[in-house]
Structures are given as structure tokens and as C-alpha cells.
């Protein structure tokens, strides 16, 4: 690149374009970009199709714990230690761009008014809106965006950010309101991904004397971010209350910001934290909060009844979604010697009797998970059991030649279904198969237990963050005991459980990998070899496979949806036939109960229930 003094005479805007590494256009770029093809919404669109642009604003939305956390000890959602207060990330932090819920992998300018991807795809430039401001009234500048990126990539933040953004070389400040991200590799997901990077002020944690509290030491210092809400009050372990920022920059212009029309319709959001699920449900029936998402089939079938449901004060409905169901199951920590033989892991899967659970505990509400990309065209068995396509074989065959022990032979056959006890199969037959596999791996039943050649019993610990799954686990453990395997069940509160997960201090636990319609860099954190060595990553299983790394690389570098599909299906085959997880079940609906005055638009294609309520619902008659 030429030195600045040599090109002083170049007109200012053209200079900025050259420095940004993109072609010059008088309109800078576009509001929307897409990973594949074109974004659904053209520049100048008025609002997303799935919102109600006339939704009234006002009132208070009161919600319970959004997950199993029962308390919190910080407001910083980006550090490893501690438990963050509910609502902080969604209500207070914004990004340069935001995705839409009715298409796959697109992004539209939020803090940024324009986005331009370089012709060589090795960088992306964002132009920051002049009206965009932080909650303290200061303008959002490119320096704040760079500070956010550099901080999240440092040792002060959760290590997962370094994994997810590993292909981002640097953030470069071009001018006060222009920021460029340079990439190490050509990856079509990166422009969308850096666009959704959370942005916060350089002044967050600044003390009266001008010194700054280190990022990893921030606890109850109020975040300085640009979202529509600020903290009103809180009581750790009890409540977290947000109020609408009266000076929120997105509400100040003469024309509504299109990506915010129909969003954040409540003046206040109040989280009440309850000690357990039973207490929370009874509190809902008593009218203590407005909506509740139910994940337990038995509760949905049996407990959402009573006078308030009969008189219409409370309502319940299952809302269809098109989310990829992903993977949920009992995950084994393969860092433990006991789980390192794939025959052992496969054997343990035969002991889970899904059909009995679905019949006796789930009221036939679930379907079995048979893929890491269940309910998606990215799944290797989406269109039925079949052998790999030519596109999949093009990825798998060279990997088999290079790393034969890391590519199971079974990947070249039709994807096997999860073990079933439906006729003509049975639990007894499955346990016999399990016993044979265990014997092949050197485990034999003698002296009242399943033992290895050294006489050590097969014994492990199952850890959970509460009693939510105890009936399921107890059924599974009884079947394992028939094989001579002893399981110690340990439950703990959310904070202690999370600490154990961050440090990989467990044998087996229940995992739920987040849904994604267009998976990419997050897979490095979930399955990458490097992530398995870094505390706090999503790779709790401990997968360290050169084949998995190569297939994740193929996924993130896919240039078309077809290439992405081939790569995810190849990865699906390898993971599935490596038996890292004992797959459980899924439901293509969100079960939501709510007060009668709550209103909602038609649901989008892809959404989580809690976020949809928070972002797009409103209350009739609210003021």
C-alpha cells in the first residue's frame, strides 16, 4: 500500500475506498449482505415481513428465568467466570448488523448504515450511522468497534471468541465512522459474522479518576452499549429490571429504523428468578409473569390446567418452527479414558430406550434425533437413508486415505438410525448388542460388575444442573446397570454446573447444541481440536480429530449452499458414526403459555421462543 503522503491529492472519499480495499461507489455499499446469493430485503425496505409494524408500545413484560440460572453475579456476558444477569446481551448490546429470522445467513445494517464486501472477499467495510450512540450519549465510533473486537479476542474475554473469530486478521479504523475487517482466509461467512459482533464503549468500566477496570474484572458496572434498554434496578437472585432508554438512538430519527420496526415493544422488561421449575410454573398460574416457555412434555400435557386456563385468563399454544433441531443428547467427555474407545460409546447408546420414554414420560410428543443437523437439509439423512453423494465422497475419500482411523468405514454406507426398541427390535436385543461391543473393547461382566482386563469396574458420573432430567436419567441408568455399569448421578445449581463444564470436569452430561440454519465458524468452537484444549469452549465432548477439523474447514469455506450441504452431510456422517453423543429427541414446535392480553405476530421461519417473545410480542392495552 502506498504511503499516505504520496497520495494526498486523491479525493477524500476515493482515498477511503482505496484504503478499505473495496471498489468506490458514491453510496458506499448496501444495507444488506448475504452469505450465499442476495439478501431477501432490498435497500430501503420498511420493515421485516414477520413483525407487526403497528404493534403498540408500552407496559411491562414480566418473564421468569430464561434458562436454569437461579441467580447472577455480573453484568458482563463476555467473560468466562460467573453467571450473567438475564436479558443483558439481548436488551443492551447491539452490533453493526443484524440478521433476519425469515432467511438463512443474511445481515442488514443496524449500527452500520452501509456494508461493502471487497471484490476479493478478503475484507468488509462498515459505515457507522452518524446518529448511532451509546447509552451515555457518546457517538459510536470506529475506535469503539475496534476496541470491542480486540477486547473479545484478548485473554480477558471468554476464549470461545478467539475460536469463532479465528479467521479475522484485524479490525482497522479508516476514519471516525468507517471500520474495516481484514480476513486471513476467504470465507463467505466472515462478513456476516463480524457484522454481528457485539459493540460496546471504550468507557465501560471507567472510574471517576479516569482509570479503567480490567475487562475480566467487570461485574456490576453497568454496560455502556447502544441497545434500547438500560438497567433500572436489580436484586441478585431475585429480580432484574430493564427500562427503555428514553434517548435510545434508534428511536430518535424522523424515520423509523427499518430493522427496529416492530421490535422491543415494552417500556420495561422485568425478570423474576425462581428457585426451580415447579415454583416457576405455580408462579405463572398465580399471575406473577406474562409468558412461559415449556420444555417438559409431561408438564405441557398435565400441568397447564386449572381455573385460569378454563376462564381464558391464561392461554397455551404450540407454535411451529422450521429450525434445524441440531443435536441434543447425553454427551461423553472423551478426554476420559473410559470413553475413548468408539465401541464403548456405541454400546452405551443401545441402553437408551427412547420409545419407552416417549410413551411413558413424553406423551408421544417427540421424534428421535438421527443427525447432528436434524430437521434440516444439511442432514446426511434428510431425504432418507442413503449412501454419500459424489460431492460428499469427494470430501470423504481423501480423508479416509490420509487419516484411516479417523474415518469410520460406516460413513460410506447409509446413515444408521439411532437404536430403537420398536418391534421387531427390543431393549433386550439392544443390550445384547451393547454387551458384545463392550466385550470387544475388553469389558467383561464378573464379580458383580462390568470390568476391564485390570479388574477395574466400569463406573462414571452423570452430572446435571438440576433435577429436570432425573426421571429420564434414572431410566437410562437402570438399563446401564443391567450391563454391570454403575453410574453416580450428581446434580448442582447452574453456576457450579457451568463451572464444571467450562473446566471439562465431568464424565457424562446432557448437551444441547444451538440451532443454526447456516453453520460455520461456531463449529470450530464446538468440534475443533484447538477448542478442545481451551477451557470454556463449546467443545465439551473433547473432539480432537484431523478429519473433523478438515470438514469444518470445508464448511466455513463453502462458496455455495450446495457446497455447504455436501460438507455438513460429510461431517454429520463422521460425527454420527463416531458415537460421541447418545442422541435424544426433538419437537418442531415451541410450547408457550401466556396471559390473554399478550399479542404476537405470525412467527418467523427460524426463531427461539424466548427471543421471539422479548423482541416481537406486545401487550394489548399497554400504556
TrEMBL record:
One GO cellular component assignment for this chain's record is:
ATP-binding cassette (ABC) transporter complex
Keywords noted in UniProt: Signal
One GO molecular-function entry: peptide transmembrane transporter activity
Source organism superkingdom: Bacteria
Q: Where is the signal peptide?
A: 1-29
Cross-referenced CDD domains: MbnE-like
Solute-binding protein family domain sequence ranges: 109-531
Q: Which GO terms describe its biological process?
A: microcin transport; peptide transport
| Protein name as it appears in the record | ABC-type oligopeptide transport system, periplasmic component
Q: Which organism is it from?
A: Polynucleobacter duraquae
